[in-house]
Backbone:
């Protein structure tokens, strides 16, 4: 009896062995897809000259927030270029974009499901807790076994870690849509799908965008861990500098991560809160009756609220 | 099903809780709402009514009385725990979701308390929403929506967003959206409660105009009794989930089913709701024109009044004669009442509100005559009766002499005159 031990670890290990053997082809397929997606985005970012990327990023910055953000963007990207981390930064950006897009593709439908069904919500919630709090190294091990060293286990680990706020905020946003407006849709005979598409999603968009913003931020925070399993990019530089106790390299690579993070955060936050067609939903949500008509084409005031990184 | 019934509710129950059916069983067996409170909330208990086509049916009750739950069962937004709802001859209880959506698209639309407009869509797209759901092509639905926008008085606002409109205008959009869907039945859930009083009055009047024009069946929920009285062809009063009385505004006001309703209606503006027909008294002092002055004088003596109503041969209202004139006529031996009929009697139709009776009542000491379309005398409203009705004081506490105006010539004089002239007549 003294030797009794809950054999949880052994069971999980056996389970991973089993699926590696049985569903190996499936994981090979997933690996190929993820890898293909990453390489495609990476080629798009790395092959053009640096100034093309800077111009595109600056244009995006200008249309979402204005000229101040544009100046900051150009300055930040020039710093990355100046410390000779351009290619690594583009690799990292590609990884973050692919992982974020995949995380959003998985998390938004899950969030909708959770909002629609209490049962789904009560199943999804603990799984999200698990995914978010289990140390990332732990699921890196099976990810390494299943997907082998390279960029793919990094993407998988990033998706797992970053998904949770996407699901949570999508659910919150849809549940927070004015009940009476949803009822109005029902009362006129709209189907659930139409209500979702025309009422719930547009009205929940600011919250969903906040979720997407968080997904991207969390993806960036996984860059270093991805670097450890061979995903390359800025993460690999940080890991290398750690191994060599290279303060200079560590700081330069780390700063590049921060610059990317701030840029992506401000960009996506602006999409959620105003100044863009998407942001208009937010303003119109808070219906303040006004007797004085305003010009229909007058855009709502831009919000410049800073978002903490 | 009969053509005249637009919506029918039959023994509707709605219970919220973990075991709603058990609650309904207990309620059917006679348990009160409080007795089943441990199981959950009984929102609607045993509600049955029929709404006729083209009628404005008002459901009135305080908050928590279950009226919002009731209206949501009428278009299936909430499932009835027990009982059936019939809309346009089709039962909507327990039918599949797709069929229910068809009913909502084609038969019942709804106006919401807080407007429930789609904030990201323009006014015209909001108005056209019902048509869009019905699958009407874009060009046609925009055309129909612009007609409706004109109808509800929002010309020039078609391309504005709801947030740019005032509350009253937003609710016009809500009303327009329901009208554009072109359903027979309109459910209005506290539709005007969020508006300020002046706008509310305006909307109420507009609703009545629209209803007269379009002939919709309207089920209107409100907690405001004056609104209920103003709009309702019939009113259902709800309390604690039960319908305690269904009747016309006058029936509710003049004959409340219980103390609760009575208490509820005591603050209502009676002068605008009550009509001449509901307060008029039977005519007692009346003679036909052919009966002659002697009969008129005798009537006035018996009833101790100074005037009497005169009817033509076909029973239509001719006017009033005064005792002095009749006495003179009798003394002079004339026999035609026609020459002394005064034109100063006021006659009104039965549906005149009491508020319009005050002025004529002040201006003349005669009772006001109530006549129908064929000018037949239906009843009279003496000043005392009008005052009693306005003050909600009963006038039937015994043999009160309600006849006005009081006699100005003593009985003795009349009797003597009658005797004298009778003797003369006998001699002749």
Residues:
């Amino acid at each position: 009896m003294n030797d009794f031990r809950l054999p949880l670890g052994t069971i999980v290990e056996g389970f991973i062995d089993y699926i590696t053997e049985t569903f190996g082809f499936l994981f090979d397929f997933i690996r190929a897809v993820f890898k293909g997606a990453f390489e495609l985005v990476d080629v798009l970012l790395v092959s053009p000259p640096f100034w093309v990327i800077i111009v595109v990023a600056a244009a995006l910055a200008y249309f979402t927030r204005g000229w101040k953000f544009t100046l900051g963007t150009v300055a930040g990207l020039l710093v990355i270029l100046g410390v000779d981390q351009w290619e690594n930064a583009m690799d990292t950006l590609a990884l973050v974009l692919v992982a974020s897009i995949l995380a959003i593709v998985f998390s938004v439908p899950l969030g909708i499901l959770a909002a629609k069904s209490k049962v789904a919500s009560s199943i999804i919630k603990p799984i999200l807790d698990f995914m978010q709090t289990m140390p990332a190294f732990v699921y890196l091990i099976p990810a390494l076994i299943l997907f082998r060293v390279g960029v793919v286990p990094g993407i998988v680990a990033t998706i797992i870690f970053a998904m949770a706020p996407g699901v949570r905020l999508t659910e919150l946003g849809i549940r927070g849509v004015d009940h009476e407006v949803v009822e109005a849709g029902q009362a006129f005979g709209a189907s659930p799908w139409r209500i979702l598409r025309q009422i719930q999603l547009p009205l929940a968009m600011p919250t969903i965008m906040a979720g997407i913003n968080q997904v991207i931020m969390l993806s960036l925070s996984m860059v270093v861990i991805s670097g450890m399993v061979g995903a390359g990019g800025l993460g690999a530089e940080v890991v290398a500098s750690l191994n060599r106790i290279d303060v200079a390299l560590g700081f330069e690579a780390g700063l590049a991560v921060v610059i990317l993070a701030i840029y992506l955060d401000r960009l996506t936050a602006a999409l959620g809160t105003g100044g863009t067609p998407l942001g208009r939903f937010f303003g119109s949500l808070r219906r303040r009756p006004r007797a004085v008509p305003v010009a229909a084409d007058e855009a709502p005031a831009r919000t410049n609220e800073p978002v903490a990184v | 099903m009969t053509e005249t019934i637009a919506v029918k509710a039959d023994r509707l129950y709605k219970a919220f809780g973990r075991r709603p059916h058990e609650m309904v069983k207990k309620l059917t067996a006679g348990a009160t709402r409080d007795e089943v409170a441990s199981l959950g909330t009984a929102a609607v208990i045993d509600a049955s009514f029929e709404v006729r086509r083209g009628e404005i049916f008002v459901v009135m009750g305080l908050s928590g009385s279950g009226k919002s739950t009731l209206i949501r069962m009428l278009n299936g937004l909430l499932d009835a725990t027990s009982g059936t709802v019939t809309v346009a001859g089709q039962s909507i209880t327990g039918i599949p979701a797709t069929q229910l959506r068809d009913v909502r698209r084609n038969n019942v639309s709804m106006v919401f308390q807080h407007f429930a407009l789609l904030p990201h869509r323009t006014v015209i797209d909001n108005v056209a929403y019902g048509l869009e759901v019905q699958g009407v092509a874009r060009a046609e639905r925009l055309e129909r929506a612009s007609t409706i926008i004109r109808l509800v008085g929002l010309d020039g606002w078609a391309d504005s967003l709801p947030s740019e409109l005032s509350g009253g205008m937003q609710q016009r959009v809500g009303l327009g959206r329901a009208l554009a869907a072109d359903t027979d039945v309109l459910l209005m859930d506290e539709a005007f409660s969020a508006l300020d009083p002046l706008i509310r009055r305006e909307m109420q009047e507009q609703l009545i105009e629209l209803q007269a024009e379009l002939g919709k069946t309207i089920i209107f929920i409100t907690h405001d009794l004056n609104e209920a009285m103003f709009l309702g062809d019939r009113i259902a009063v709800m309390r604690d989930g039960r319908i305690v009385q269904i009747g016309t505004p006058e029936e509710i006001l003049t004959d409340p089913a219980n103390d609760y309703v009575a208490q509820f209606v005591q603050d209502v503006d009676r002068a605008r709701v009550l009509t001449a027909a509901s307060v008029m008294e039977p005519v007692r002092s009346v003679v036909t024109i052919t009966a002659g002055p002697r009969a008129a004088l005798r009537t006035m003596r018996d009833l101790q009044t100074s005037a009497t109503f005169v009817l033509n041969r076909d029973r239509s209202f001719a006017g009033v004669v005064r005792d002095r004139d009749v006495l003179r006529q009798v003394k002079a031996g004339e026999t035609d009442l026609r020459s002394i009929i005064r034109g100063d009697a006021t006659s009104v139709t039965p549906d005149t509100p009491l508020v319009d009776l005050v002025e004529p009542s002040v201006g003349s000491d005669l009772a006001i005559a109530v006549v129908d379309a064929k000018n037949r005398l239906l009843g009279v409203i003496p000043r005392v009766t009008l005052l009693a009705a306005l003050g909600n004081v009963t006038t039937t506490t015994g043999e009160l002499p309600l006849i006005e105006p009081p006699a100005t010539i003593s009985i003795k004089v009349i009797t003597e005159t009658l005797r004298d002239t009778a003797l003369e007549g006998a001699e002749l």
Remarks:
- The radius of gyration of chain A is 22 Å.
- Chain A touches chain B at residues 178, 180-181, 183-191, 194, 198-199, 202-203, 280-281, 283-291, 293-294, 296 (CB under 8 Å).
